Predict the 3D structure of the following.
Amino acid sequence: MEKGLSHRKDHCMETNLTHSETSIKQGTGASPLARLKKRPRPGEMLIQALLFICGGVSILTTLGILYELGKESLLFFQMPGVTLAGFFTQTEWQPTIGKFGVLPLVSATLMTTSIAMLVSLPAGLGAAIYLSEYASTKARSILKPLLEVLAGIPTVVYGYFALTTMTPLLRAIFGDQVQVYNTLSAGLVMGIMILPLVCSMSEDALNAVPRSLREAAFGLGATRFETALKVVVPAALSGIIAAFIIGISRAVGETMIVALAAGSGPNFTLNPFEAAETMTGYIARISGGDVSYDTPDYNSIFAIGLLLFSATLLLNIISRRLVARFREVYE
């Protein structure tokens, strides 16, 4: 009897396998995944095409900007008296009278950017560590919106704040050696403006560190400060570096604050109490005036713009390299 049951089971299994093979060959027994792959999905294809178009538009826009800057900059460097060596080495910038040294504009840009970074980087990182590691839920719910309000203030408001509030404060502290237009007030207010950006990106990087690393440090007897400084910050270093470099790029490209508070005349100086025009300030001043086409002043703004574009591109390349170098991967 047992042999009969066993023989009947084997016969049924063979029959089922034969029917399954026949169904698969005919396409009726295909897996659900295979049927989904064969089914046309026009909605998915449309979304994919739209995303591809968005990416293509971004690339084409960048190439278009680079083409226009390069074309107009070439006209500038083909003008009489303009040389690439003199452009980067001379210390006088007056295109109207044949002085084409860009160093005064570059030095003012670097000075305001350095002052802004001295304010925004340590303050932004400190605020991010507090919000991530120390602040209670209630404190975070209050401080986070305040930082976002700072990020939403128009830059022209920051510019007038630097001119009407920060400069008188500096003159009250340091005396009349602080000129009405100076790079120090512009740099300090620029640092306040960039602080929310650095803080927000750094906090995101710190929050991405796994909780298990903090618990392991606490288990070894580390204090909260030691855990934050020696465990969490090194683990989030790639994101923090990215926040710093984006903040620097933001400072280099800032226009309204420096145009209103730093001054409107090229001045090759390292004294932050004096007025000095930055690259973006010069572009804003020349673009807003009555400048004829194909004049030295008009063509020079494209050369300055190309220099700014190259600086920003270099910062982005450095950022990607550093992020890849210090990236930490956790399971």
Summary: The two ends are 57 Å apart (CA to CA). Residues 214 and 220 are 10 Å apart (CA to CA). DSSP finds 14 helices and two strands in the chain.
